[in-house]
């Protein structure tokens, strides 16, 4: 063959080779010069892992700097994604050591699915003995990680628990709601109380440890650490000493009342500075230790906790105010000019309306009663007269609202109800719904019963007979319904009930203390608040909360003066005189005994002190605790004693008639 | 026997290119086989639990290999030592090849062809050694022999003779059938192992040699293109209609993965994806020898054999791969030059076969690691770790040099 032909053919081969190399080099240039960044990121995602270091949450201090909530280190056990091979074996093993259900762990792993490089937390606050067992079996437990994490610690155990709230792992819906704030599954989140209300401040910035891993996800080396930043601290308006007193006193009284044979399920007390609205103590009984949430509760524990009645903050629960409401009528009477404080009635011990007599709590009556005495002795007849003859439901409601009833106080912690200032519309709606719930199904049942009968009836005579029977039955139920229907409308006795704080009235102890404070401070309504300031971990004040005036009550000063005078007489000569006899600080108060159908009465006591220059107000409720003065009064007395530094408080458990 | 004239007539450009490629390969093999302190779980736990160095204000631990001393110690890994041994062994074999005038190969054509078939049959017999789902080796005690590697050079030698005999009689399809049988028998045996990559190289070699041997160019091109179209059609029909296909499940997976590797990131696409990440993340300058995370942390599979090119891409960047491809191009260019200057058709065909073999290996291997060819698992010639491959390639270089030395008729 000619050499030229060979040369030609090999040249073609050379062109082919040049073409191949051009393709290859172009591909490589594209990957390495144009797409570098994308591949660099992918490479990094391959071998870099960020493992969060949990930041401690902010701490909570009382107004004097006493630490109420801190952090302590505990052991946590987590599991790193293992691939599919080892998971079952390791999960079963770890579950048996930790005493958990393997299914529970698998569920947690599944929830984690999208972020497999993050360890999944299995257990928190694991005791050292368990950690030791895990350490011993480390070689057989690949992927099990033991960490030290900060968790909430409560030096005073259960103290202030209802106000503090608690922290728990973030829930799915919270995670969804806070998506943009960088929360991850397993993060702690304030679930109630201040922990919830101040979550954005209390939460710290988690740090991270960057770890390099190989293809089997085994860590190869540490690449450095980003230090976590602790959350900001809260300084409360609460005084730990007063709080301690409040809780101890409340517990003592509840147990005492139980001993005396009352139901006495629990109680609430709250002390507020009448000059600012700062809450000095807020207690609810029974209580629980917030630390129980750290480990997480089992279903049984959760049910027990709910049953115990320790969960709700009773300061924010609704109670009938009973006689503590009577100052509203007195103030309304004077402010509207419908009655002069010196005007009096002769109390025969009952109030006659039509042919019905409403009996005062005191058989035989209080004799000649003017406004001050009516407050002092809590004379029902006087306020029935005032409420029914002179004021009426609308005016009572109007003055109740002036003092913040039926409106949230705006305290920082969540879950506050607005309360109910009764109105005819409210009554109608409430009772209508109640009646419909009872009779609606009955009407329906009759219709249902006759429907197939009527449908199968072929004979028109038979049909008519059936139709008549149906109408008869319907009418019978309708008659029953109508019997109660008249009670949809506002009746005189509703006004009478409302006048003595019964009936549909429902308010929180916090609203009560706020109302007493407004009486005490001559008509200013402050917004109650719990947090004085937010301080960064290095001591810088981040936010300071000043007293916030909601407004003036807007009634004549004389009206408030009469109310105060009447309240002063309560503790000197009136229904709580026994409790406060010999007490060195001049206290003004009001007892209340809220009737509850089918239960013992709620015992209430509201007060402020000193009488001349009021500083603090207190509201106390003992659920189903009997008489207001004797059950709730001592709690207020103990709180005042602690506040004013009174030594040797005369520990009278004097019987209070109301 | 070693004549001074012979030494004078060696193609030194080619030799230098080969030398540089091998040196380059030793460095990369060292990096690819560096063992990064395998950790048991206790050590692992310690890293998880121990405070990171940064906690105490110290700098994080120094990156692997900052000191030169450490490098030299690291450099001579077991694999590098073995590879150096293979290179020396290969050089001896190459010297032997040079000493025999290439015309003499033809006399042994039958022996070579039969030896080739026998070796491939032994692989498929119970004596064959399997690994990773394929039976490609014969266990020779300390070494595994891979006959499919040697088969390539054997077929180049026998087919060159075969075509030389049929010079000028390769114009019709009927004329080509014996050629197909000649190449097809060993090729099918290799496909049976299975080794799709090497089989493809066989096809490449055959068509290149047919073309140079003077076969009807239209026929050759038509068959080449038609064959590809047929193969692609067959695969397509398999996926679409479930038509039978002589491919194993994993090979089909690889073909599927080739279409969209990112879809099966953690499954069949893993190799391709990790390889592309390695190359792409290398950028222009690379991450430095011993410093590629994909390589060092074993994200890259087979990083000292089939995927060694990815290590070059990751650790030496575009500069590194360009340099390597340039060296390969010089090698191929010299090979083509040798083919065109060969004294006779047999010499030209031998050179063409060798060049085609190298070119297809490079195309398939680099194409595979960079994601433009399906994963078929062929080594990068003269570069991937492995004795059989090194020997075959050095024999091939020896054949080229042999043809070059004896290019001038007057010498003989």
Topology, element by element:
The complex is a heterodimer of chains A (658) and B (412).
Chain A: H1 3-34, H2 36-47, E1 48-53, E2 60-61, E3 67-79, H3 87-98, H4 102-112, E4 120-124, H5 128-136, E5 144-153, H6 161-164, E6 167-169, H7 172-177, E7 188-190, H8 193-197, H9 199-202, E8 207-213, E9 219-226, E10 233-236, H10 240-259, E11 266-273, E12 279-285, H11 292-295, H12 299-308, H13 326-336, E13 344-347, E14 350-353, E15 356-359, E16 367-370, H14 371-376, H15 380-402, H16 424-456, H17 460-485, H18 492-499, H19 509-520, E17 524-526, E18 531-535, E19 541-544, E20 549-552, H20 557-572, H21 577-580, E21 588-594, E22 602-609, E23 616-623, H22 628-644
Parallel strand pairs in A: 2-10
Antiparallel strand pairs in A: 1-8, 2-3, 3-4, 3-5, 6-7, 8-9, 10-18, 11-12, 11-23, 13-16, 14-15, 17-20, 18-19, 21-22, 22-23
Helix pairs in contact in A: 10-22, 13-15, 13-20, 15-18, 16-17
Chain B: H1 4-8, H2 12-33, H3 41-49, H4 68-75, H5 78-99, H6 109-124, E1 128-131, E2 134-140, E3 143-145, H7 147-165, H8 173-191, H9 196-212, H10 217-241, H11 249-259, H12 270-282, H13 293-296, H14 308-341, H15 345-369, H16 387-405
Antiparallel strand pairs in B: 1-2, 2-3
Helix pairs in contact in B: 2-5, 2-14, 5-16, 6-7, 6-8, 7-8, 7-9, 7-15, 7-16, 8-9, 9-15, 12-14, 14-15, 14-16, 15-16
